[in-house]
Amino acid sequence: MTFKRWAAGAALLLSAGTLANCSQIFGESESAGAGGSGEGITTAMLVGADGDSANWISHGRTYSEQRFSPLDSINRDTVGQLGLAWSADMDTGRGQEATPLVMDGKLYLTTAWSKVKAFDAATGAKLWEYDPKVPGETAVKACCDVVNRGLAAYGDKLFLGTLDGRLIALDRDTGAVAWTTQTVPTDKSYTITGAPRVIDGKVIIGNGGAEFGVRGFVAAYSADDGKQLWKFYTVPEGDEGDDAPAYLKKAAETWNMDVLAANDAIGGGGTVWDSMAYDPDLDLLYIGVGNGSPWNRAYRSPGKDGKGQGDNLYLSSIVAIRPKTGEYVWHYQTTPGETWDFTATQHIMLADMTIDGKPRKVLMQAPKNGFFYVIDRETGKFISAKPYVGLNWATGVDPKTGRPIENPETRVDQTGKPAMVLPGALGGHNWHPMAYSPKENLVYIPAFEAGMMYAPEANWKPDRARGFNVGFSLAGELPADGGIRKQAAGTLRGMLVAWDPVAQKARWTVEHPGPWNGGLLATGGGLVFQGTAGSEFNAYDASNGKKLWSFAAQTGVVAPPVTYTVDGEQYVAVLAGWGGAYALSVDGDLINRKAPVRNVSRLLVFKIGGTAKLPAPPALAELPLDPPPSKASAEVIALGQVKYGRYCAVCHAPGAVGSTVLPDLRRAGALESAQAWNAVVEGGILKDSGMASFKGSLSKDEIEAIRAYVIKRANDDKALEAGKRVARR
Ligand code: CA
Fold first, then answer.
1. Most C-beta atoms within 10 A of its C-beta, which of 19, 105, 196, 242?
2. Are 698 and 569 within one domain?
3. How far is the CA of 182 from the centre of ligand 1 (A)?
4. Residue 408: phi, psi to the nearest 5?
5. Which domain holds residue 707?
């Protein structure tokens, strides 16, 4: 198809009125498939993706990001015969969060470390693979594992954001690099884990790093050559000049601009690290904006009294912008003056429904703060919000103002005192995609409850180079007492919530053993598919939550499934592999006592009558806990605890309890020797595996104090494992 022909087709579709019309028009050419050789993905195809049930051509399947497929040959009656068609092992052992794309019988995915792989979607034969060779030490810039959530397709290319901030275009047939653009400053802790979207030949990508002092933005690049077309900052810079756009001048009025301008290590945050959606009729791109940097508003935007002040636009907001120009249109801020890492980067989903007797074009989101929001997507006006999980930071949302009614005790940037807050920094829902069934008018939410103690850190100073820069002490730990640790774990909940967005209440809920379960897929077969932290991949009845089918996945599944057809046969595919923020921070001991959840990174593909088998799961090594004796002084151990909390906990778990994904430091061989320990932490000898040098951020003495602290923790837990109680220092 020539450029002129697709442009004309796109113009026809864009002027056709409603999304439904677009689908009908596109539906007629469904059998043409998603871009045979030489044709490629067009704007018309992306706009009409709903009518193309054979393929899955953009991240949320359609621009509305509903993750609903009309396919129905796998349904309530046939799902019992669903079996493994093929599987493919990944060559990484970290979190797997990607949504595969499927076009013309070929499946494309990203895996950890921003690698890309292409398969025959029916047989699993590998077609090509691409490794952008992200430097290992980039891992220390990432808050939440070295994950990647997927690709975008346009023309004959695929687009990928890499952990180190490159936007790369690949030839879809061969995996050859067409162009590369560095999208972020490399001297700050920016990372990309999200999937790009393409609108009318513009590749849109944001980034992460709001735990590390960056200033958030989203930008558009030409699909042809990677040239930057526009850049949209989500927070002001500090010294807004007269030529700053009006929306940033307006934002500047809601910040302490002196603080923001004075310290380059306080970037403000507001990163656009995951969700986007697009309404072709309104020509609006919706972006989800993240938390403040640092989290503690008393340090980010203090008033004269030193307490946090100001709404700090556009943190924790949904912002509508013009995809052609990057022009601001409207915003809705879910958590004004956020201080708890309450991002609004969670899945943004568009749908049309009748509310109070009137047809409404709505935007829906279940952000971290625990409220499910229904917003008018033309105007950004608040329609309704209700809690989809337990929460204590607010008692509701004022329908007149759309602002939360806060609980002053949890306003830790005002009180300066520690508080237990629900949801915690992981949210009531994180990045895991939801799904929507228009048949049931239900939104399926992979929700969970995990409260967090927010303890404001006294005399906190940002570190521009390294470490978790949030303004709260993360040195708190659970005592070496199995009973208390089990009790704490018992407060964790994970559930699949089927949410009625009109009534604003759950119609049904499935309880899972714990948090961090997989993203969702809803289908025309009346099914909802979800992987779990308990190493299952399940199908539920979309109308009542009854479990109809289950597969033992051998690993925690966090990624969302997709479905497609090849030669008319329906497949369901999901990338399995435990990882991400919660997996790195959870107490590995407790997980292991229930059932070992570990990382086996593997693509699983199912069809009716599939008979493939997985290889036997690898045996779990039982490593003894055998640390050197704890001889350091209480002062040294206390210093090590503080430094561990700031520089180590985010990857190696708070309290050094050891997750099942990254090395358990209590069992590290280097614990035996100050010299070996220093060679890793200061010398950076393991940087290629992801453990960067902390030289410049930690002194030799502090590095040794961290070793002393981990030795102490290991001895505590060794005594615990022997069934003894030990007195705490
Ligand atoms: Ca965050």
1. 196
2. no
3. 23
4. -60, -25
5. 634-728
In the numeric block, the tokens 């899955």 are attached to: 56
618 assigned to some structural domain:
no
Cα(460) to centroid of ligand 1, in Å? 18
Q: Which residues are catalytic?
A: 341
Overall number of domains in the chain: 2
Is the predicted pLDDT of residue 19 greater than 80, yes or no? no
Residue 621 belongs to some domain of the structure: no
**What is the distance in A from the centroid of ligand 1 to the CA of 358?**
37
Phi, psi (5° rounding) for residue 398? -65, 115
In whole angstroms, what is the distance from residue 47 CA to residue 63 CA? Answer: 7
Separation of alpha carbons 467 and 540, rounded Å: 41
Reduced to 3 states, what is the DSSP secondary structure of residue 603? Answer: strand
* 109, pLDDT greater than 50: yes
β-bridge mates for residue 551, sequence order: 537
Nearest to 580 by CA among 140, 115, 97: 97
- In this structure, the answer to whether residues 95 and 191 fall within a common structural domain is yes
> Measured between alpha carbons, how far is 284 from 324 in angstroms, rounded to an integer?
9
| Residue 469 CA, ligand 1 centroid: distance in Å | 11
Determine which helix (DSSP H) or strand (DSSP E) holds 489, and give its type and residue range. Answer: helix 482-490
Strands (E) in 356-441, as ranges, are 358-365, 371-376, 382-387, 394-397, 404-406, 419-421, 435-437
pLDDT(491) > 90: no
Pair 363, 436: CB distance under 8 Å:
no
* HSE-up (13 A, CA, CB side) for residue 307: 9
Tell whether the torsion through CA atoms of 406, 409, 412 and 416 is positive or negative: positive
Question: pLDDT tens digits, residue range 130-179?
Answer: 999 999 999 999 999 999 999 999 999 999 999 999 999 999 999 999 99
Give the amino acid at 147. V
DSSP letter for each residue of 170-187 = EETTT--EEEEEE-S-TT
- Torsion sign over Cα 370, 376, 378, 380: negative
**Is 434 inside any structural domain?**
yes
Give strand pairing partners of 102: 56, 107
CA 415 / ligand 1 centre spacing (Å):
22
Q: What 3 state SS string does 464-480 have?
A: CCCCCCCCECCCCCCCC
* 625: in domain: no
Confidence of residue 636 (pLDDT cuts 50, 70, 90): very high
Q: Is 243 within 8 Å of 177 (Cβ atoms)?
A: no
